[in-house]
Amino acid sequence: MASDWKTRTKLVHDGIRRSQYGEVSEAIFLTQGFVYDTAEQAAQRFQKIGDDEFIYARYGNPTVRMFEERLAALEGAEDGFATASGMAAVNAALMSMLRAGDHVVSSEALFGSCLYILEDILMRYGVEVTFVDGTDLDAWRAAIRPGTKAVFMETMSNPTLDVIDLRGVSDLAHAVGATVIVDNVFATPIFSRALENGADVVVYSTTKHVDGQGRCLGGIVLGTKDYIRKTLEPYLKHTGGAMSPFTAWVMLKGMDTLDLRVRAQASSAQAIAEALAGHEGLSRVVFPGLPDHPHHAIVTDQMDGPGTILALEIRGGQAAAFRFLNALEIILISNNLGDSKSIVTHPATTTHQRLSDAQKARLGISDGLVRLSVGLEDTGDLIRDILDALKHI
User: Fold this and answer.
1) Span 143-196, pLDDT tens digits
2) Separation between Cα atoms, residue 44 and residue 59, nearest integer Å
């Protein structure tokens, strides 16, 4: 039975829909709309869409549905809705359930665009948002109150790799009836146990590890069937943030190798972190797989692996960090992550540049901090590339 399949089997076979031709590879149903045998059938479908019926690509598509069902099965969720990008998924997960007067508690350590949605968009429309230090369970306890509608967090923060006690926060949120929404990108669908540890809604930018080869933007929201179909779907189908069938097909092809890729990347990340620990050019190496990471125990308890991302604090600030980046030969300077190619980012001047100096300081985003997303290159080559570049700082 499909419910008994292991991860790699699910990643290749789950959710498959075959046409009358019996194709091996998933078909791309590159169509905007669908036809009906009769006017009565059309009217009936607009009243109630069946499990394998479609109306319009903004509402759903067979290729997109294969992707949604496959990732939902992997995550252990009842259902999912794929979106045009990861930020479309974050926006929809929040906006679809909130209205003026609602209260949200969020970790303050977030990707810049996530902060924009919470600080600028939600507050603009009358939603009260309280930000806390996500690693401080007492701060969550003080902020969550009767009537709190939702809590939001990155389970592993971008870019400083703080890991939140999801189980502890979920217990506090559920005690007042709040919905727990998590951005789980850094944890990856392979190492995540977010639903098991209390999350109600899980959001991914599938641009990252799921595609993992730098080709397409995409996102997905996962949760209960009731939340996906009654809360999220009406918002998304009317606001138009749906994933395209071609993108869904690319994502399906990425899922074939997702487990293999992520485990290989995480293994390399561990080796690189261990090789760089104590280097004189670095004031710190941040990787959840190292025993000295402050939240190493949470990773061990609540995840199946430490992920594929490191943070390196270069001694000498921005000038030294830029010299390091510019000296790299294999690792690429870009702002993506979770790719088969290793990528390095300077968050203070790129992904988090809109934050004030005070916010950056509070979150630990210094001028010397660089984020390293480990790819599929030879581990030894990557270590040599990093060590050679550190000679230039």
Assistant:
1) 999 999 999 999 999 999 999 999 999 999 999 999 999 999 999 999 999 999
2) 16
In terms of domains, do 187 and 283 share one? no
Q: What is the pLDDT of residues 253-285, one digit of tens each?
A: 999 999 999 999 999 999 999 999 999 999 999
Q: Which amino acid is at 341?
A: K
Write the pLDDT tens digit of every residue in 62-109: 999 999 999 999 999 999 999 999 999 999 999 999 999 999 999 999
Q: How many residues does the chain have?
A: 393
Asked if residue 3 lies in contact with residue 39, where contact means CB atoms within 8 angstroms, the answer is: no
Residue found under tokens 């149903």: 29
pTM passes above 0.85: yes
Q: Which residue has the tokens 């109630």?
A: 48
Q: Which residues face 309 on adjacent strands? A: 373
Phi/psi for 163 (5° steps) reads: -115, 125
Rounded CA gap, 351 and 349, in Å?
A: 7
d(CA 121, CA 85): 18
Closest CA to 373 of 298, 319, 308: 308
Which of 233, 255, 277 represents a domain boundary (last residue)? 255
Give the residues across from 313 on adjacent strands.
284, 369
End position of a domain, from candidates 255, 278, 306: 255
Residue 190 structural domain: 2-255
Task: Based on the fold, state whether residues 299 and 361 are members of the same structural domain.
Answer: yes
Same structural domain, 313 and 203 = no
Q: Are 292 and 249 contained in the same domain?
A: no
Q: What share of the chain is helix, strand, coil (3-state, %, to 5)?
A: 40, 15, 40
Q: Does residue 78 share a domain with residue 93?
A: yes
Residues forming a β-bridge with 163: 156
Distances (CA, A) of 234 to 66, 187, 257: 20, 28, 32
Q: Is 48 exposed, middle or buried (0-12, 13-18, 19+ CB in 10 A)?
A: exposed
- Look up residue 89 and give its two tokens: 């998924």
**Pair (269, 212) in one structural domain:** no
